[in-house]
Structure formats: C-alpha cells, structure tokens
Write a structure and sequence with these properties.
This protein has two domains: 176 residues, Response regulator (Rossmann fold); 147 residues, Rossmann fold (3-Layer(aba) Sandwich), CATH 3.40.50. It is 41% helix and 19% strand. The protein has 14 helices and 13 strands. A seven-stranded mixed beta sheet has the order 7-6-8-9-10-12-13, sandwiched between helices. The longest helix is centred in the last third of the chain and has 16 residues.
C-alpha cells in the first residue's frame, strides 16, 4: 500500500487523515496548539481497518484529533512481510513522535532503524520471552504496549481442543520458523504431557512448506492441529483452513476471523479492545512519559468462537456441553 492509499483508507474509517509533510503540519498548527505526529507500521490496512479505527477512536477520547492536533503517517507492506524494512525506513525518516508497530516483525523492523523514537506495540505474544523487553512492569528502552496472550494462551488452546475431542492423542503444531514460533513449545509440551498427548511440531513459513507440513500430519496420523499466532499464518489463513478441511483435521487458531472464514474454532484476545487500549500508551508518550517506564498491559478479554457449519461439513461431533463454552457460535 502506498502512502496515498493509506491516507484514503483512513478517510474510509472515519478519520480525516493528513500526510506528514511540512505543509500538512502548517495546516494543522495554523488552527492553534501542538501537532503530534504518530507513525503507524501495519501489515495490511485492509485486514486491520477495524483495529486502527479503534486506536484512532481511543486517541480522540484523549484529546488527539486528526485534522486538529494529530497527524498520522501510515505505512504498510500490504501482506508482504519481507518489505517491512523498506516501510520502516520510510516511516523513521519522517521522524514521528511515536510509532505504533502492530506486529512482532513490525517491531523488529522499526527497532532496527531507530533506537530513539518511542515504539508502542500491539498484537505481540509474550514480549518478555521473545526478548523484546526486560519485563512487563518495567520494559525499559523504547518499547511499551499491549501484549496478547503468549505461551499460556497456546496451552489453553490445547486444553480446548482436548475438551472438544477427548480421544485426541496426537496433536500437530504448525509453527512459524521465521518468527518466535518455538517460544511457546516448551510450555505446550509440558501441558501435552500432562494430558497424555504426543506433540508433532512442524515448522513452516512459505506456502509450499505449509502444504508439506499438512501432508506430514497425515503421514504422522495426527488427530488435530494447533496453529499458534503468526502474522504469516494470518495472511495464509485461507490456505491453512482449506488444508485442514482437505485432510479432515480439527484445528484451532488464534484469530476469530479465521473461524469466521471457515476455520473450525479460534480462541484469542479481543483485538479491537487491545488496539483501542494502545491509545493510552501513545497518549502518555505524547505528554512526555518515557516508553520504558510505562508498564506493558495484557489483553483482558478472550473469546472462543466455534464454527458449527465447518464441524458439520467435516463430520466432527461436538458435544452440547462444549458448544455451550463458546462465546460465539457460527451456525
């Protein structure tokens, strides 16, 4: 997505976006008061429109209004995560007051470019274990934000799958080898051992590797598959859902959108609420706080979504008791 497209997309979410240029700043400043510049590095504005809209709304509640005292500069590689370094370099060169980086790979790209500009993150699983910060209470350095889940959340998905399919004995885990994919496997192995389940970890990142991983699941007689959080897998979700259907493998995912689009079930955080909350961190930084002094917050609300249409099409029998656990059922 180029800069003009990003700006037009922000108009579509109800925000009068202004590009970061000296003329734009003069226009806003002419109305009186300080102009805050917030950079945004987002993987796909089209996919995350509702999330960015929530952040904009949260900033508005705190007195930061586009076209008055706030300028957003949005950059996106549009699902091609290999272009993160280019998008990040462009964003840092514009010298915003703070940058919102929406994924783990976005954070790495920004921190590779600058050590001085504060960075607020969202949609990051376990920032301590992945080495981004020292601790949640005192992250230190240039980073703060909202963490979504982590290793305990992956183990919770294992428990949900076992509850749905009590006879499950062999569980495939499709993890992203190019990300922090193995970060939660140690705790997952421990949880699996306690439940008497054999784990079959299969690493992948490229489409052809995902295809091979599912073929290996069949050869290994996997009973189900768990897909941990990964921005690559998020953009490959339709492929993964189709492969799970082809091999008739029950699958659980992080993002509710995957269940909406045909995945059997998903358990994960309320992303809209999390992205709205990052406005708090951005506001504090714009008012002079140091990011390293701002505690990282953890998502508070999690949602289990079950797609009964997918279950019926595959012939999976889910008990009424299990269906009753769901926060939302797709019929």
């Amino acid at each position: 997505m180029n800069r003009r497209d990003a700006i037009m997309a922000l108009f579509a979410i109800g925000a009068a976006a202004v590009p970061v240029t000296s003329n734009a700043q003069a226009l806003v400043a002419g109305r009186g008061g300080r102009v805050a510049r917030v950079g945004v590095l987002i993987t796909s504005l089209g996919e995350a429109r509702a999330y960015l809209s929530a952040t904009v709304a949260g900033l508005r509640e705190r007195g930061w209004v586009q076209g008055k005292n706030l300028v957003l500069d949005v950059r996106s590689p549009e699902t091609n995560v290999d272009l993160y370094p280019k998008s990040s370099a462009e964003l840092v060169a514009a010298r915003p007051d703070v940058i919102l980086a929406t994924t783990y790979l976005a954070v790495l790209a920004v921190t590779d470019e600058t050590e001085s500009i504060p960075v607020v993150f969202a949609a990051i699983s376990d920032p301590v274990k992945t080495g981004l910060v020292r601790s949640l209470s005192r992250p230190g350095g240039q980073l703060t934000g909202v963490a979504f889940g982590g290793a305990p959340l992956v183990s919770k998905r294992l428990e949900i799958l076992k509850d749905a399919f009590p006879r499950m004995a062999r569980l495939a885990v499709l993890y992203d080898v190019d990300r922090q994919g193995e970060a939660g496997l140690a705790q997952l192995r421990e949880a699996a051992q306690q439940l008497g389940i054999v784990l079959l970890p299969l690493g992948a990142s490229r489409p052809e590797e995902i295809e091979r991983a599912f073929a290996e699941m069949r050869r290994s007689a996997a009973d189900a598959v768990l897909v941990p959080a990964s921005i690559r897998f998020f953009f490959e979700r339709r492929r993964i859902v189709a492969l799970a259907a082809r091999y008739r493998l029950p699958a659980i995912y992080e993002h509710h959108l995957t269940a909406d689009e045909g995945g059997l079930m998903a358990y994960g955080p309320d992303f809209v609420a999390g992205f709205r909350r990052v406005a708090h961190h951005i506001d504090r930084i714009l008012r002079g706080a140091r990011p390293g002094d701002l505690p990282i917050e953890e998502a508070m609300r999690y949602e289990l979504v079950v797609n009964l249409r997918t279950a019926r099409a595959a012939g999976f029998q889910l008990s009424p008791r299990f269906i009753g656990r769901a926060d939302r059922v797709i019929e």
